[in-house]
## 1
Amino acid sequence: MVKAAVHLFTEKGFHRTTTREIAKASGFSIGTLYEYIRTKDDVLFLVCDSIYEEVQTRLQSLLTDDTKGIERLKNAITSYFQVIDEMQDEVLVMYQEVKSLPKEALSYVLEKEVEMTSMIEEVIRYCVREEVVFLTEKQVKLAAHNILVQGQMWTFRRWSIQKLYNIEDYTKLQIEQFISGITKAQVAD
Amino acid sequence: MVKAAVHLFTEKGFHRTTTREIAKASGFSIGTLYEYIRTKDDVLFLVCDSIYEEVQTRLQSLLTDDTKGIERLKNAITSYFQVIDEMQDEVLVMYQEVKSLPKEALSYVLEKEVEMTSMIEEVIRYCVREEVVFLTEKQVKLAAHNILVQGQMWTFRRWSIQKLYNIEDYTKLQIEQFISGITKAQVAD
Amino acid sequence: MVKAAVHLFTEKGFHRTTTREIAKASGFSIGTLYEYIRTKDDVLFLVCDSIYEEVQTRLQSLLTDDTKGIERLKNAITSYFQVIDEMQDEVLVMYQEVKSLPKEALSYVLEKEVEMTSMIEEVIRYCVREEVVFLTEKQVKLAAHNILVQGQMWTFRRWSIQKLYNIEDYTKLQIEQFISGITKAQVAD
Amino acid sequence: MVKAAVHLFTEKGFHRTTTREIAKASGFSIGTLYEYIRTKDDVLFLVCDSIYEEVQTRLQSLLTDDTKGIERLKNAITSYFQVIDEMQDEVLVMYQEVKSLPKEALSYVLEKEVEMTSMIEEVIRYCVREEVVFLTEKQVKLAAHNILVQGQMWTFRRWSIQKLYNIEDYTKLQIEQFISGITKAQVAD
DNA sequence: CATGAATGAGAGTTCATTCAT
DNA sequence: AATGAATGAACTCTCATTCAT
């Protein structure tokens, strides 16, 4: 159902997609759909939740690598961008439709987003502890946000960016600028 | 009307806002509203168009400063971030709702986005020509995208970022990382 | 609209009548119907309210007669039964569907019912004061309830009663039994 | 099942009660419920039928008492009111929901109602034959209807009546007025 | 025999849009 | 030129009923 919904939301957006379409695309009747959900909003929540779950799981498994120093950060970014690339539609839908979630669900989802940011921060902080980069806590947080968003923009600016680069180039170039940015940032500080 | 619509869209999103509400908030009757627009989508288009127009105008006027070298780029970024900060609601609405525009309007709006990217690119290219930074054309384009998005994320991640920084700090830190990123990028290339 | 709704409710009951049917029978579109009401329950409330209003108004105007003693009571009962007879469908619908009203509306309507009971009580109390009947306060209240219900049963048992009597006979017979009941009740007390 | 249904109907009415709820409250699965009934209307019919059956049975057993004259009538009324009081919910549901029965079932149920009226009539006619009251056939029938309805109103006006009286007082007062009404009715005739 | 997942017709309600005034 | 009553297509959601297991 989530797969079907993602597909429809990608094409027409959440609001322009009807529950009947979701049901049909999921392969069950409207009645059966409503056995699984209580309101249409629930579909959106399920979609968002499942995407976060998958992204996070895949990210977590990738973060357990045993490289050291700056390499570890590079690998993490590469992996994250890879995941985003493979789940483009899902990620795109999620960032375009979260705002339509009811308040409570929104908070829940934003918490997940916070968790993800923390994961990235942690990888950066690791480099700080290893003394391969020198950043204040504020700079670490900002860098984490930047990486996260640079991943997301691969989807929401794809109409432009993906004409210029493939994911490998994009990753390479972003890492390049990003790493120089933070390794030199110490000086500027 | 645009002001009223932006306000409503910020609060409830485009789809959850009714034409009646837009009319009322604009001080028109529903009948009069439909003298100015043909469909509800037109409102969204007008909103997006007017925001682009304003952002672009303000940006353009700021780019005619007479500083040289890297300072010019720093000033441009600072100005751009300033504009974004002052037009937070507008920018937020725009990036969250563009996707709801009908195809034709979408293309038109994306073109504006391309123009803006070009403006930023141009400022960066100027630095390249001045030989204060050394970037390939591909790196220039990516850098422009990054700046643009870092501006936007001030709004769409405000629930998190604006708790950590005020706009001055945010600008300072981003410029710091960004400038080191591109000035050192030559080496990494 | 109320007229149309009463007619439909008489035939099929409130729950089996659709809003579309109400709209059609009222001569407007479903959209226009919803300009006048907020929910389907509102229709029922409007129906009940308007019936009470009419019954009460007609009753009130009839109670201002200048006869004395027991005649006054007889006239009141006769008038009340007359009103019920003329508004049979309305009264029937009301007593069969009130329970479907949402809580708040129900209280409001029951208050009206209490008012009507009080009106009848007052006429009886007048006879008590005139010393043509001798009843305790409890007996007065019960007598009022009885009259009220004997009026209503002319509608809700019409499948049986109206085969046996016309409204004149019914009124005459009921008054007969009722008046003897209360004029002799003193003794039994 | 009937017990469960009565309980639910009392709380929410027939139409607002779902078959699922009936099944659950009865301890069946929805599938099993439909082994016993063909349509939801059948539930209502079963409920009504079983209530009539019980009221009638209890009434019948009480009518075989051996008192004579007016006492017999008083006892009958007292017993009937007693039954009503003990089966308040059932009686209330029945009178509020019969109208929702499909035509055929309705006729069947109304026949039962006729039977009950006849039973009461018979008790009154017995008094007429015993020459303790003097009533025409028309008066007998009306009196029977009145008693029946005065029983029912103990439930459907309980929000008001049961605040004023307990069942013993109510019975005593009603019998008082009723008996004087019919014993004196001869004169007024 | 009992179950409950599956169905889909149909309900109430909304709202973009029109057009007579 | 401005209005807002009127429209009805389209939406979300419910629930009586069935039937494969």
## 2
Amino acid sequence: MGIADRKERDKEELRERILVAAKSLFLEKGVEKTSIRNIADRIEYSPGIIYHYFKDKNEIFHALHQGGFLQLMEKMQVLASVRNPMERLKAMGSIYISFAMENPDMYDLMFIKEAPLDHVFNSEHDHWKEGGGTFNYLRMTIDNCMEVGHFKGHEPEALSYMIWATVHGLVSLNIRKRCEVVLPHRQENIVADGLEEFYKILDRL
Amino acid sequence: MGIADRKERDKEELRERILVAAKSLFLEKGVEKTSIRNIADRIEYSPGIIYHYFKDKNEIFHALHQGGFLQLMEKMQVLASVRNPMERLKAMGSIYISFAMENPDMYDLMFIKEAPLDHVFNSEHDHWKEGGGTFNYLRMTIDNCMEVGHFKGHEPEALSYMIWATVHGLVSLNIRKRCEVVLPHRQENIVADGLEEFYKILDRL
DNA sequence: AAATGTAATTGAACAGTGTTTAAATTTCAA
DNA sequence: TTGAAATTTAAACACTGTTCAATTACATTT
């Protein structure tokens, strides 16, 4: 059955080539401004071929979207070695933010863009599996913090959401260029500075 | 000069009609999916006419964008009557969030969408005038809070950004449907609940 | 009232888009 | 070598933002 196998691999390889081309184009010029023809040009095939590998443009987006979460989860691995739960929580915030700042377009795809997410969520009623994993890890870390006496009087689910919202807010305002309202000489480091203010607060809870 | 005046008014009226049509279409189906032809259809003119009133589609977006900030600033007026700066800060957060939840598409246009913002910022080098106003008011409120002894050890500019990021994060994750990761029965009120957790924290600072 | 000049408006055209589909080509087992 | 199956293509469809020459409408002047 070696031949069937090779054909399988060839098919898989072309699918991969489409994804690589789509990713670089999406990150280069944005999802909306990347056309199917652009992608086809880059892999030197005709536009039609793409529809044999993906239902539509959204499905390409979705595939890349999933890849982004794998990347983020991988970065999060180091957290296992941080014993103190409060330190772990802060390290998690730093990893989240550095991922976002190092891969702003991918972050955009994962957490800000709206375009094809009906597809992501509604399909398979699996409640946005990729995002759920990281959120649950945050939630567990908050639980651990509470077990050792932090966050007294707080409600863990809503608190987790609030903390996520804070780090997301810090990076997403920056990515979408709403930082121009802060003093010009503070703009360059405003995300890190804002995170530091947040840590000052966490240290008191 | 009555005739020239009337023509002036007519011109202004058609401009307004374009904006009204564009706004309802943008909020109905999104900016990207609204075409110039859609707008022209709704006002019963030919597509070309729109380019006599606006340079391009971005300029229409920009005009609506400005309108949104007027709306928000108007809602903020009541804050003048809140004497206690810490209460004023919290009231500001509540107004911000209720504005966002009541006008999610307008909020999207103002703070989340990226599309035509190069235009908004780069033109006139005026540092995003509309957004700057509300941020400065937040910044002033933080200063007032510090004057009466709150936020000791904090840096006001970065703290203001962090607080804005938190409320923005709360609403923008919700608007872009990233809330499906929280427990299903908590989803409906997660923005309000998250805000409450934030207030619990502010009360201790 | 008729002619003129100007501003408003149109509709066709251009170059692009996502997607579908019939046809052509290639591949490969029998 | 043949014939069927899989792969790939090119053309078409209906859309997009934008431009622009031509037309229409109309206030002003003669």
